């Protein structure tokens, strides 16, 4: 498993979150985006992000 950082971001129109990790010369980014007024992680988002085997 690789170490990863979780992050969130938002603007007036979208909300998003995800994780990023680095392995040697490679950077991996997984992200979930939603149009507002929806915000936060729902069950499907958590399942998707959890499917990546990383240490958070």
Any low-confidence stretches, pLDDT <50, length ≥5? none
Structural class: mainly beta
C-alpha termini separation:
10 Å
Radius of gyration: 12 Å
**With helices defined by DSSP (H or I, 4 residues minimum), what is the helix count?**
1
Helix and strand sequence: EEEEHE
Proportion of strand residues: over 45%
Helix fraction, binned, reads 10-25%
Q: How many beta-strand segments?
A: 5
Task: Report the principal-axis shape.
Answer: globular
Main β-sheet, in a few words? 3 strands, antiparallel
Average pLDDT number: 89
Strands across the major sheet, in which order? Answer: 2-3-4
What does this structure look like?
- With 56 residues, the chain is mainly β.
- Helix content is 14%, strand content 54%.
- The protein has one helix at residues 43-50, and strands at 2-3, 5-10, 14-23, 26-35, 54-55.
- The strands form two sheets. A three-stranded antiparallel sheet has the order 2-3-4, with no helix packed on it. A two-stranded parallel ribbon has the order 1-5.
- A hairpin with a 3-residue loop joins strand 2 (5-10) and strand 3.
- It is globular, with a radius of gyration of 12 Å.
- The mean pLDDT is 89.
